[in-house]
Amino acid sequence: MPSSSTVAPRLPGETRSELRRAACRVLVGNWTGRSTVPSHELYPHQWSWDSAFIAIGLRHLSPVRAQQEMETLLEAQWGDGRVPHIVFNRAVPLDAYFPSPDFWRSSSAGAAAGAPRTVETSGVVQPPVHALAAWLVHSADPRTSARRGFLARVYPRLVAWHRYLADHRDLGGHGLAAVVHPWEPGMDNSPCWDGPLARIEPAAAGSFRRADLVHGTAADRPTDLDYGRYVRLAAEYRDHGYRDAAAPHSFAVEDPGFNALFIASEYALARISEALDGDPDGHRQRAAALTEALVARLWSPEAGQFLCRDLRAPGPDDDGRLVSKRGAAGLLPLVAPELPRPIVESLLRTVSGEHFGLGTAVRLLPSYDLRGAAFDRYCYWRGPAWFNVNWLLERGLRQHGESARADTLRAEVLHAAAAGRFAEYLDPYTGQGHGARDFSWTAALTLDLLARDAEPTATAPLPSASAHIPAPAPVPASEKGP
């Protein structure tokens, strides 16, 4: 077992260079011309929060391509402001992925919600990490970003995205965004959803075909029963025109990870607004209000972490009930800059304590409670370690002054990426890779951590780009997407 005092050795310069080249090859190989697929076989379309993480890494390879990654995703934004979790590639056969475009029927079923007519998408969303990604992408090359008018183009879309979450998804009425499908918080089959999902009648077994099992091991993937429930929820939403006011939302949960990224991105919007000579105060005030609501609604002093709130479970004053299960999402509020210090200290103890064991039992943060009855070290989001979660934790640790712990985690992530051929996720005990290989966000976040690993000091800040951004200039033809 690793010791909490163990520091993973920094990769030698030659190894870092080899790892960077390998990560670049993955991203180049998964680039489709205007965006990047997570994996050609298992995930052959564009995914929302994947693209945000991919852009964060792409900025070190090609800032223009990173900007295009974000722009392409936001071109599929709906009229009501939502950013769909999948943007479908018309060139990919319908049977390559399920649910496919003919299941979602976004351009017709979502017409009342403003779904685009020229591209097919899903109807649900994913965590709002996009504004943070846009700011980091801009920061990589502010002059090119300004010349292309990148921030000026994406800012209104990101504002509309956040407004959608605030206006349409505050289902609990206390200021937090709720997720209405297990795919929305990104941690699809987390044990935290077992209780809320148990109330959902699954779709008939013969009514859908699981393309994911063609390329993945069944034991590592969600069960057929859970998948049937996913399909039922998505069909229910579709059949109500994806209109949040009309849909019953049989599954409605306030998730701490989703809202933590909402907070981080609201602060990023403040920086973008300031760079565009706008007024950042409104964004900062909304971030502060979200932080206050997050603490009031989801903090559990007994658990020492944030918990999910099931809005459909019977509870006092019909206000739902906290889910007692411990997921890694409950630690992600460390990315919120203004979290009260006593809560930060409690979260830091939980990170390395018996339930998550970072630095004591495991080298990378698992996605679920090591001591939980539902923990499964191999099965998707029920235990394995994920690179994006650990990247976010590394950022949160550094933000709250835990530079040494952040350095150790960064080194462990890089070693795992090198050993696992950029695996989708890992056994948190052995580091053995599972899921897809040459996975895009693993490669992208490896690039980002390598860029910071090469900085003169471990605490060197991210690039700043607070200079005035001029009015957008015409985009050169050579930099436009095909």
TrEMBL record:
Keyword set, alphabetical order: Glycosidase, Hydrolase
Disordered: annotated segments: 458-482
Keyword Transferase found: no
Domain named Mannosylglycerate hydrolase MGH1-like glycoside hydrolase: residues: 43-442
Gene3D superfamilies from the UniProt entry: 1.50.10.10
Family that this chain belongs to: Belongs to the glycosyl hydrolase 63 family.
Protein name from the UniProt record: Mannosylglycerate hydrolase MGH1-like glycoside hydrolase domain-containing protein
